[in-house]
Write a structure and sequence with these properties.
Structural class: mainly beta
Number of helices: 0
Helix content: under 10%
Strand content: 35-45%
Distance between the termini: 42 Å
Shape: globular
Largest sheet: 4 strands, antiparallel
């Protein structure tokens, strides 16, 4: 066997490489972070284009965003204490990095509600609150979520059903289904201890209408409808 290319980093890595797009050439590139928390951008020949030291490990996906709506792409991601936005050359954009108001309990989620690149960044804190920032890293006014019962460690999702938007996430005790301002949009009639390893999957094909599907800590499958109705199905013992 022969390698297509090789690239030497400063140290080893335990970060899954992220394939990104060069907005100028449209070629693939590779975004990496090593165990010293340095991030790299590597081109298709294995040449390190730049590297940038960070103080922490990345805990979210690495999103490519067009903050200025001009076709140029930046790298947006989160660590436990900060939001980071790097440009094509590895330099911080605007007021970034943004210090979080609480240490993060999950990786950031990124939503573009109407496809206009007016991004919203959602991230849960260890203070049991969920924070929303705009693309410049400023807190979004109008978001008024009182807080969760437990730590939110799984992903926060945005779902659109017909003309309504739903912000959906869970802690170890319950599922939250909110509107875009943080108010409760659906109150499930039954709560359960959701498995930490499973996502909330939107099933649009049910004869009773759209529903969220997941499992609890014992392996029981739970269906939560947007009417508030909740059903369960025991498959076996897990």
């Amino acid at each position: 066997p022969q390698t297509t290319w090789e690239s030497r980093l400063d140290t080893t890595l335990n970060f899954k490489p992220v394939f990104t797009i060069n907005h100028t050439t449209r070629q693939k590139e590779v975004f990496l972070q090593d165990e010293n928390h340095t991030v790299y951008l590597v081109n298709t020949t294995g040449r390190v284009l730049w590297k940038h030291p960070l103080n922490e490990a990345i805990i979210s996906e690495v999103f490519q965003v067009d903050i200025f709506k001009n076709g140029n792409l930046q790298f947006l991601f989160s660590t436990k204490k900060s939001l980071h936005l790097l440009d094509r050359n590895g330099n911080y954009v605007g007021k970034y990095p943004i210090n979080l108001r609480s240490d993060a309990s999950n990786g950031m989620a990124l939503f573009d509600y109407d496809g206009r690149k007016d991004y919203r960044i959602f991230i849960a804190g260890t203070d049991k609150k969920v924070y929303v920032y705009d693309k410049n890293g400023a807190p979004v006014k109008g978001w008024d979520f009182a807080g969760s019962e437990g730590l939110v460690t799984s992903e926060i999702q945005h779902l659109r059903i017909a003309t309504k938007d739903y912000i959906v996430f869970a802690d170890p005790m319950r599922i939250y289904i909110l509107d875009r301002r943080g108010n409760t949009r659906v109150s499930p009639k039954h709560q359960f201890a959701k498995s930490a390893n499973n996502s909330l999957i939107l099933d649009r094909q049910s004869s009773k209408g759209p529903r969220l599907v997941t499992t609890d800590v014992e392996g029981t499958v739970w269906y939560t409808y947007f009417s508030g109705e909740v059903e369960s199905q025991k498959l076996s013992g897990y």
